[in-house]
Amino acid sequence: MKRLLRSRRFWLASMLFSVAGIVGVQLISAADAAPEVAPADLERTRAIVKMVDELNKAYVVHITATYVRAQEIAPAARIARKVFDHMESKKMIHSGRLIDVTGTPIGENNVAKSDFEKRITPRIKKGEAYIDEVGKTSDGKTIYRAATIVPCVMKECTNCHAGVKVGDVLGALIYEVPIIK
After folding, report:
1. SS3 call for 101
2. What is the pTM of this model?
3. H or E segment to which residue 20 belongs
């Protein structure tokens, strides 16, 4: 029990630190977006995406370890989608999606939809761990897109993903973040 409390405190502190590091960051508006992105701005945005990715993967693994091992039926990916939806609805720093790259998605919303998702799917499936690009949103804002690999990391993953083994590639986490100045 003490270990679980320390773990919860650690993750709460990590989330608070992550939020504190992002608070006050000014997002680019369409009016001041430059055609070229300054290398320092791109690196700062890339660092934030890597931090958010690590945080998201950590809670998926720890939720799975905690609840799936306890025979709960809700997979961690369902919780991740709820967090992504929450972040997007609150106009937080990023939007995120979890997509399937196996060709047999568990849910219809898990398929690649955007051009970026469709382009990176074969590369993620082959094991490329991180793919990114700078692009524009439909309303002309400069955006950083990133995809990170989601492998099967524990035997509990096979409860929902039949026929896979630890190490197999299951999907990708997709992030869209405004370039941060």
Report:
1. coil
2. 0.64
3. helix 2-22
Q: Are 147 and 124 in contact (CB under 8 A)?
A: yes
Choose the weakest-confidence range: 29-33, 61-65, 93-97, 140-144: 29-33
* Size of the chain, expressed as the number of residues it contains: 181
What is the token pair recorded at 90?
A: 């609150």
CA distance 150 to 165: 13
Q: What is the pLDDT of residues 4-19, one digit of tens each?
A: 334 444 343 343 333 3
Angle, to 10 degrees, between the axis of helix 39-63 and the axis of helix 76-89?
140
Q: Residue 175 gets which letter from DSSP?
A: E
CB atoms within 10 A of CB 143: 21
95-100 and 169-178 as β-strands: parallel, antiparallel, unpaired? antiparallel
Q: What whole-number distance in Å separates Cα of residue 77 and Cα of residue 171?
A: 11
- The mean pLDDT of the chain is 74
List the domain boundaries for the chain: 2-15+28-178
Q: Which of 51-55, 69-73, 162-166 has the lowest mean pLDDT?
A: 69-73
Q: What CA–CA distance (Å, rounded) separates 17 from 114?
A: 31
Express each pLDDT in 95-108 by its tens digit. Answer: 788 899 999 888 88
CATH T-level assignment (fold) for domain 2-15+28-178: Beta-Lactamase (3.30.450)
Whether the CB-CB separation of 94 and 176 falls below 8 Å is answered with yes
